[in-house]
Write a structure and sequence with these properties.
CATH superfamily: Sulfate adenylyltransferase
Radius of gyration: 16 Å
Structural class: alpha+beta
Number of helices: 4
CATH class: Alpha Beta
Strand content: 15-25%
Oligomer: single chain
Low-confidence stretches: 1-5
CATH architecture: Roll
Mean pLDDT: 92
Number of domains: 1
Strand order of the largest sheet: 1-3-4-5-2
Amino acid sequence: MADPTPGRSGAELWAEYAAATGATGPYAVWGFGDEGNPALMNELGLLVRDGPKRATTSRRDGFNDVEPMPRPGDHSVILDGEGRALCIIRTTSVEVRRFGDVDAAFAWAEAEGDRSLAEWRAGHLWFFDSVAAPVDDATEMVLERFARVWPQPVDPPGG
């Protein structure tokens, strides 16, 4: 799929979305993964924009008064590894679970690798270790589900 928003900033993509939908209010601008790994940010961001990724996981202790936990209805502009806006998501649900209590349905929604719970666990253990924030089965995690709201899906020809 060709990039419908080549080189746009988060503010530019938000302005386009707001003009088309009437959306107002605050929004966050960020990328999935780790800023020190732009390839991972690209891969995960494109899974949201062009693919099935509709969930993400964070450590509960990573949120505070400056960076609050996501809430249903929150909007975020998602960036690629070079800081270009890819798409806009809206949080649909948030729950806190221990790492060891994440289930196969959530792993499937997160849509990374083969989408299995085993691969979800291995990938998240690797990721949190790589950013010096290791997790174990008792670590509280924030499980966020979201919808991609912009750009709008394009119907296939004849669809």
